[in-house]
Amino acid sequence: MIHARKDYKRIQDLAAVVEMLKKEYSGDEVCLRQIVSLLEEKYGPLTGVEPIPEDELVFLVRSKDMAAPQTVRYWSMHAAHVGASASMCQTAHNHADAMEAQQRERGKQVPDMPEGA
Questions:
Q1: Is the pLDDT of residue 7 over 90?
Q2: What count of other Cβ atoms lies within 10 Å of the Cβ of residue 19?
Q3: Are residues 7 and 46 in the same domain?
Q4: pLDDT reported for residue 75
Q5: Which of 58, 68, 59 is nearest to 98 (CA)?
Q6: Residue 16 belongs to some domain of the structure
Q7: Distances (CA, A) of 94 to 36, 55, 86, 101
Q8: How far is the C-alpha of 63 from the C-alpha of 106, rounded, in Å?
Q9: For residue 87, is it within any domain?
Q10: Do 96 and 72 form a contact (C-beta atoms < 8 A)?
Q11: pTM summary value
Q12: Cα angle at 58 between 41 and 100, to 5 degrees?
């Protein structure tokens, strides 16, 4: 995944990481199974899913960002307009509500980006 910010490069699709580990640890099946098991225990199924391609552009919005809830709501409305499922759009809208709740609990800030990111 290619993020707009360089400091978010560390945030990657774990399904893609598992595919990379399979190549790197092909000779050590026990170690590989342990690593995948630990990851799946925390994050859910990672094998048998289509990873986000390494060269696909993504944009991450964090809940502490003052613009985040409205950004997600706009995305939800536009996604519905172009034919996305009502269920997916409602999930996004609910997530925006949860972002606002988290902002009330933890605070919020003006969007920022470190120098050089």
A1: no
A2: 15
A3: yes
A4: 97
A5: 68
A6: yes
A7: 30, 29, 12, 11
A8: 10
A9: yes
A10: yes
A11: 0.77
A12: 75
Q: What is the token pair recorded at 96?
A: 């925006």
Does any domain span residue 14? yes
Q: How far is CA 85 from the centre of its chain?
A: 19
Contacts of 92 (CB under 8 A, 6+ apart): 72, 73, 75, 76, 79
* DSSP secondary structure code for residue 20 in this structure: H
The mean pLDDT value of the chain amounts to 90
> With contact defined as beta carbons under 8 Å apart, do 95 and 75 qualify?
no
Residues 88 and 42 in one domain: no
- Please give the residue range of the domain that contains residue 97: 68-106
Token pair in block for residue 80:
């519905």
* Span of 3-7, 81-85, 92-96 with lowest mean pLDDT: 3-7
Question: What are 43-80's pLDDT values in tens digits?
Answer: 888 878 888 998 999 999 999 999 999 999 999 999 99
